[in-house]
Write the C-alpha cells for this entry.
Amino acid sequence: MKILQVGSSLMSWGGIERYVAYLSDGLAERGHDVVVSCGPDTPLHSHITVPAIPIVNRRKLDFPAMAKYLRLFRATRYDVIHVHFSPDFLLPTIAARMTKQPYVIMTRHVVLPWTATKVKLYSALYDHFIPVSHAVERQLEASGVPKRKMTVAKAGCPPLVPARQREETRRELGIDDDRFAIGFFGRLVAEKGVDTLINASAATERRVSFEVFGEGPLSAPLEVRAQEAGSRVRFHGFREDVPECLKAIDAVVIPSVWEEAFPYAALEAMSVGRAVIASRVGGMAEIVEEGSTGYLFNKHDASGLATVASRMASDPEANLLMGLRAMEVHRTTYTTQKMAERIETVYRSQATLL
C-alpha cells in the first residue's frame, strides 16, 4: 500500500510523534510505501527513516498548508492517508476529499470528549477512527461516534537497549546499592502528578526513593517542596540516557492525574524489564496487569502509592519477576512490528468496505 502519515502539525518529540515514527518504520518493514508529511526542522523529521514531504501546518486553518496538500494530492494518489494531531484534523482531510483520495483515517491519541458538532464533522470527513485504547474508544462512543467506525489498535515501541551496566549508572546517579529506587520519567507539569510522589515518600520505608527524570514548568517549585518536606524524592533533570536510567531504577511510576490514553513511558519501561506502578486513569489498566506486571493505585492517593512501593521494596524477587513478565508482554504484544501489524489489519479490513 501507498501510505501517507500526516504529521505536519507535530513540532516536538512526545507520544504522538513517537507513534508516527514507530508506525512508519513498522509499516515500511512490512513492505509498504510510506511517507510522512512534517516540518523539515522538527524532531519527527530527524527520527523517521522513511521519506518526508516538507509541509508545516501550525493551526487548524493554515490555508498555505492546505494549498500544499492540494498540490500533493493532485499529483499523488495514496491508498491510505492517516492523520494524528488536531491541527491536522481539518484542512489536510478536506484537501484529500476534494481530490477524491480513497481512504482517510484518524488515530485518536487522547481521552477527551468531542462536541456533537465535531462528531458530525469528523464522521463525515473520516472513513474510520483508531482509538489507541479502549478508554479512548469509550470516550468517543460517549461523545456519539458510532462504534462501527472505530477499531482499537494499540501502540508499540522498539525495545530500549542500555549501553552501560546498571551498577555504573546507579553510581553516577547516587543511588545506593540497598536503595529501592522508583523512577518517574516525563514532563514536570501538574497533570503528571509528581506531587503525589512527594506526599507518598513520607509514608514509605526509608530505603525507598523516588527518582525524577525530566523537566518542565514545575521543576523548581516541586524541588523546593520536596526539600521542605524532607522527602526522598530526587530530581535529575532532563537526561538523554533514558535506557540506562530505566535500567538503573527498580520500578517505574506513572502517577498521572489526567486520563493517560496509552503512554509510551509504560511501554518503554516494560521493554527493559521494569514493573510499572500507575494511577488508575485512562488506559493504564489496559497496560498494567495488576500483580503480574505492576500495580495500580487511585490518582492523588499518596497513601495507596506508598503502600505499593513498600510492598515491592520488601519483596525484590517478586519485583524482579514482575519486570521479567513485563518484558515478555512487551516482546509479544507491544513491539513496533506488532503495532504495525495491528494497524495494517485495520487499513486492509476497512479499505475492503469502501
The CA atoms of residues 210 and 233 lie 5 Å apart. The two ends are 15 Å apart (CA to CA). The longest helix spans residues 316-333. The domain at 2-157+335-351 is CATH 3.40.50.2000 (Rossmann fold).
